[in-house]
């Protein structure tokens, strides 16, 4: 919706939170917590990166930041929830479960930030915050989470009834990127795993799914990303996933991370390796463990690259990355910068960034307002008191009345098929409700550059069409209600064009 309407939502949520701080003033801990949520409305969006152990979460976070700030490792690595936010100087702060927060030393090794967690302290640490000067973190704070260790196969399916108070608990994150590897798992298992509830409980509207370590699909063959994208496309149209996440993209996080942090020396080593006959290099890489050892399966020509360097290279690029990198150099990519661009382009990172921008960035205020209301709602339920009833009523009024929430709920219900419309109508409704982006032109299926007159004309057309649908006696009551929501959306766009 227009900035004005969304601004009004933020203001309403800010006002009710502010009043709540006063109502709970005699309970300092609760008042502080609520005040924290009030302040949070103006802070960057918090996006958690969640998924099973070793799904590639920290690597993907580094790729998004463009620097190696999150430690990654083949063994279980991220032990505590770690926040990465933009700040003037690098700074690491440990927040214990009880007691004072304290700074940790900022140390770098080989280009990567090292976080020295005191031995044995993981249990006592509530979280770490890493302040890091970074353009990529300016609008979004990224939260790295420890891997969820096991799949709970019998977790009940999440209801699509977005924002039903019984169904949502407040989380620290406003939105979630959920990583899943797609190895030999049957599709059914993959879907089941997506329903898993973990650190950041998923609700379709604030969740984006990532098929991670996409380069490993098909054993790291050179067409791996092609296969991975096909898998992602299949899941995008999978009705069972619609109620669980907004979109699914395939990303080779390692390739993206290395592309964004590529060093000249690495380019030189790859260039050296690209002189090894392709079949020889390929067969050497087939046994990745031997590629990096002395006397390993690398024939003459690659001998100029010592085993230790080959080993390091494999850690930075993976089998697929070494194959792709050398192939690109053979095809004429002649500089480190050129190679870096090409690796990132092929990693799927840009597609993920686009999806994060449309699904989260453009909905920032609505997602923030949602987090604030969920938090307040949990306090009002746990600790009702004289004077809090009207706060409850106000929360209810905003949740049910604000058109942004009505839209998101309907979008969620359409995607989860809790509300069913004829296929073509459902598709248009989802688009108009902002599925592919909240900008009016996007909602109306126009080019982004469409001018005001075009937007106005298309909105008027859509309005007339949906008014007709709403009169259609063949539609069920729920379908007619859905039409009314879409009508309101079209009216909002028309208003914005005439007043904005
Ligand atoms: N081939 C390949 N390897 C990857 C990719 N992403 C991560 N890895 C490797 O997988 C291992 C785990 O990566 P992390 O980023 O530490 O995974 P994580 O999910 O943060 O792991 P935990 O924090 O321990 O749960 C490391 O050895 C990475 O190099 C990828 O896209 N492709
Ligand atoms: Mg990790």
Verbal overview:
The chain has 20 helices and eleven strands. It has 500 residues and is an alpha/beta fold. It has helices spanning 3-23, 28-40, 57-65, 187-194, 224-236, 239-242, 253-260, 264-273, 278-286, 288-291, 307-330, 336-347, 349-359, 364-382, 389-401, 403-415, 423-432, 440-443, 452-471, 477-499; strands at 45-51, 82-86, 91-96, 102-104, 107-109, 112-114, 125-132, 140-144, 175-181, 207-212, 248-250. A hairpin with a 5-residue loop joins β3 (91-96) and β4 (102-104). The N and C termini lie close together (11 Å). Mean pLDDT is 85; it is low at 150-168 and 196-202. It has a nine-stranded mixed beta sheet, sandwiched between helices. A two-stranded antiparallel sheet has the order 5-6. The chain has a domain at 262-345. α3 packs parallel to α7, α16 (403-415) packs across α20 (477-499) and α19 runs antiparallel to α20. It binds guanosine-5'-triphosphate and magnesium ion.
Defining key terms:
alpha/beta; 500 residues; two-stranded antiparallel ribbon; binds magnesium ion; 11% strand
Which secondary-structure class do the elements indicate? alpha/beta
Q: Let me know the number of strands.
A: 11
Q: Which sequence of strands runs across the widest sheet?
A: 4-3-7-2-8-1-9-10-11
* Percent helix: 40-55%
**Largest sheet, strands/sense/barrel:** 9 strands, mixed
> Can you list the ligands bound to this structure?
guanosine-5'-triphosphate, magnesium ion
Percent of sequence in beta strands: 5-15%
Overall average pLDDT:
85
- Oligomer state equals single chain
Shape: globular
State the low-pLDDT regions, or none.
150-168, 196-202
Distance, first to last CA: 11 Å
């Amino acid at each position: 919706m227009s900035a004005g309407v969304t601004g009004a939502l933020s203001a309403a949520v800010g006002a009710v939170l502010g009043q709540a701080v006063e109502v709970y003033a005699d309970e300092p801990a609760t008042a502080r917590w609520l005040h924290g949520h009030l302040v949070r409305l103006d802070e960057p969006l918090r996006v958690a990166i969640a998924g099973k152990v070793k799904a590639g979460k920290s690597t993907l976070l580094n790729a998004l930041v463009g620097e190696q700030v999150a430690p990654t490792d083949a063994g279980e690595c991220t032990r505590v929830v770690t926040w990465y936010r933009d700040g003037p100087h690098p700074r690491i702060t440990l927040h214990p479960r009880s007691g004072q927060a304290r700074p940790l030393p900022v140390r770098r090794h080989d280009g990567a930030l090292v976080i020295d967690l005191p031995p044995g302290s993981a249990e006592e640490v509530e979280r770490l915050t890493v302040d890091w000067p970074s353009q990529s973190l300016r609008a979004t704070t990224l939260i790295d989470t420890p891997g969820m260790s096991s799949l709970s196969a019998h977790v009940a399916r999440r209801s699509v009834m977005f924002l039903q108070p019984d169904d949502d608990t407040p989380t620290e994150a406003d939105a979630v990127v959920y990583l899943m590897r797609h190895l030999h798992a049957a599709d059914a298992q993959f879907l089941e795993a997506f329903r898993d509830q973990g650190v950041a409980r998923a609700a379709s509207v604030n969740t984006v799914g990532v098929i991670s370590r996409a380069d490993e699909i098909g054993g790291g063959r050179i067409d791996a990303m092609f296969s991975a994208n096909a898998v992602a496309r299949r899941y995008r149209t999978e009705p069972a996933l619609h109620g669980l996440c907004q979109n699914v993209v395939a990303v080779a996080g390692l390739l993206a991370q290395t592309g964004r942090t590529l060093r000249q020396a690495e380019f030189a080593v790859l260039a050296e390796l690209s002189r090894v006959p392709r079949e020889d290099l390929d067969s050497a890489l087939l046994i990745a463990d031997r590629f990096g050892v002395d006397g390993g399966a690398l024939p003459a020509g690659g001998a100029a690259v010592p085993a230790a360097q080959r080993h390091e290279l494999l850690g930075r690029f993976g089998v697929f990355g070494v194959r792709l990198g050398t192939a690109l150099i053979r095809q004429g990519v002649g500089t480190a910068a050129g190679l870096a661009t090409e690796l990132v382009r092929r990693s799927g990172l840009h597609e993920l960034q686009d999806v994060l921008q449309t699904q989260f960035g453009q909905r920032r205020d609505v997602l923030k307002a949602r987090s604030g209301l969920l938090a307040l709602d949990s306090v009002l339920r746990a600790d009702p008191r004289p004077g809090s009833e009207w706060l409850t009523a106000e929360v209810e009024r905003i949740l049910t009345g604000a058109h942004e929430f009505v839209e998101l709920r309907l979008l969620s219900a359409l995607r989860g098929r809790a509300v069913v419309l004829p296929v073509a109508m459902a598709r248009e409704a989802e688009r108009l409700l902002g599925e592919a982006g909240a900008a009016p032109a996007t909602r109306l299926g126009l080019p982004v550059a469409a001018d005001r007159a075009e937007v106005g004309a298309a909105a008027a057309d859509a309005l007339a069409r949906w008014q007709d649908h709403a009169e259609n006696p063949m539609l069920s009551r729920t379908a007619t209600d859905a039409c009314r929501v879409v009508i309101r959306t079209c009216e909002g766009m028309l208003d914005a064009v005439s007043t904005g």
